[in-house]
């Protein structure tokens, strides 16, 4: 198991070429946010925008439109009740898709997940989080052939892998991943572990100041934005996971809890500092 270091992250968060444009920094689509959990999709979207995604679209319940635009005018909106062909076209247009933050477990949520799995191609990156992971486990959905990243907390991983939390050892996790077709796994907990093929990385920063609703939703947006602009790889995912906790650690020097929205606000300055060092 390798520890993720600042030096590894500095290699990923590089200066932008002067002659570049938004189309080169990733079209990110966030699918989630039902009537109960709109904040989850919004935090994911705001994290993606602040972590540098070129274009961000949120496919969510109509009820979230006004608050999304009031809070984040940079984001575009698609009603997740729109006709299926329009939803599929939106999915096809994205470079990186996040599905799950605040999606819920209804029949409509399941339809959106199945449509995404059916539509996504091998050249796109798909990040499956939150409710979408629970739906995959509950309905035994086969995972699609794409650049796949799973971001479960320990209970979501337990549902997916059938491994009780106490049995989530490195070798058991690797065996489960092989059965799932070797996606990248971000197993979120204190000292998060990241798995890819035979490699395992560990985060040794981060504290319980992150133990608040929305921390994981925020992480999905950071991972998506990083994959969109720095290319999808294990190094890129590691850099995103590290950035999320490193910002929390900085804030936790003076704060008991670090709010997801505060981590989001600190992203542009943190990335500038790393890219200049
Ligand atoms: N503002 C918003 O809109 C927000 C919306 N959200 C959205 O809610 C949806 C449901 O997601 P969820 O994670 O809240 O619920 P679920 O999947 O049932 O898991 C919780 C269960 O797992 C257990 N558990 C064990 N180990 C654990 C661990 N390491 N980390 C965490 N939990 C652990 C835990 O144990 P217990 O609390 O019983 O001790 C409990 O039994 C999802 O779409 C998400 O995006 C939230 O992000 C909040 C902010
Ligand atoms: N005690 C802790 N130490 C370090 N990191 C933590 C701790 N508790 C939670 N986190 C981090 O906070 C995030 C929580 O994710 P998740 O449970 O999906 O939250 P939510 O779904 O509410 O957004 C993960 O990145 C996890 O590693
Ligand atoms: Mg979560």
From TrEMBL:
Which Pfam families does this one have?
Answer: Carb_kinase
Which annotated residues bind AMP?
188-192, 216
Q: Which UniProt keywords apply?
A: ATP-binding, Lyase, NAD, NADP, Nucleotide-binding
- Where in this chain does the record put each YjeF C-terminal domain? 5-274
Record-linked InterPro entries = Carbohydrate_kinase_pred_CS, CARKD, Ribokinase-like
Gene Ontology molecular functions: ADP-dependent NAD(P)H-hydrate dehydratase activity; ATP binding; NAD(P)HX epimerase activity
Sites binding (6S)-NADPHX sit at 40, 102, 153, 217
Q: Which cofactors? A: Mg(2+)
Its top-level enzyme class, in one word, is lyase
Name the SUPFAM superfamilies for this protein.
Answer: Ribokinase-like
According to UniProt, the reaction catalysed is: (6S)-NADPHX + ADP = AMP + phosphate + NADPH + H(+); (6S)-NADHX + ADP = AMP + phosphate + NADH + H(+)
Stated EC number for the protein is 4.2.1.136
Any one Gene Ontology BP term = nicotinamide nucleotide metabolic process
Question: Quaternary form?
Answer: Homotetramer.
> Per the similarity annotation, which family is this?
Belongs to the NnrD/CARKD family.
Physiological role: Catalyzes the dehydration of the S-form of NAD(P)HX at the expense of ADP, which is converted to AMP. Together with NAD(P)HX epimerase, which catalyzes the epimerization of the S- and R-forms, the enzyme allows the repair of both epimers of NAD(P)HX, a damaged form of NAD(P)H that is a result of enzymatic or heat-dependent hydration.
Q: What is this protein called?
A: ADP-dependent (S)-NAD(P)H-hydrate dehydratase
Species name for this entry?
A: Latilactobacillus fuchuensis
């Amino acid at each position: 198991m390798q520890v993720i270091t600042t030096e590894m992250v500095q290699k990923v968060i590089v200066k932008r070429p002067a002659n570049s444009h938004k189309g080169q920094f990733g079209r990110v689509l966030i699918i989630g946010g039902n009537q109960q959990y709109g904040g989850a999709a919004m935090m994911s979207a705001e994290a993606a925008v602040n972590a540098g995604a070129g274009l961000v679209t949120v496919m969510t319940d109509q009820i979230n439109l006004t608050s999304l635009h009031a809070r984040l005018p940079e984001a575009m909106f698609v009603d997740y009740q729109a006709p299926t062909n329009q939803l599929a076209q939106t999915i096809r247009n994205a470079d990186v898709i996040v599905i799950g933050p605040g999606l819920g477990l209804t029949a409509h949520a399941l339809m959106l997940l199945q449509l995404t799995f059916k539509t996504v191609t091998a050249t796109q990156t798909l990040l499956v989080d939150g409710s979408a992971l629970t739906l995959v486990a509950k309905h035994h959905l086969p995972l699609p052939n794409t650049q796949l990243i799973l971001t479960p907390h320990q209970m979501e991983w337990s549902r997916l892998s059938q491994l009780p939390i106490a049995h989530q050892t490195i070798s058991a996790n690797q065996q489960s991943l092989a059965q799932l077709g070797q996606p990248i796994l971000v197993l979120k907990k204190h000292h998060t572990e990241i798995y890819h093929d035979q490699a395992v990385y560990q985060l040794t920063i981060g504290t319980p100041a992150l133990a608040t609703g929305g921390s994981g939703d925020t992480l999905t947006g950071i991972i998506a934005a990083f994959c969109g602009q720095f290319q999808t790889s294990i190094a890129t995912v590691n850099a995103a996971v590290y950035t999320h906790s490193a910002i929390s650690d900085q804030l936790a020097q003076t704060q008991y809890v670090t709010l997801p929205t505060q981590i989001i606000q600190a992203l542009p300055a943190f990335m500038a500092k790393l890219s200049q060092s």
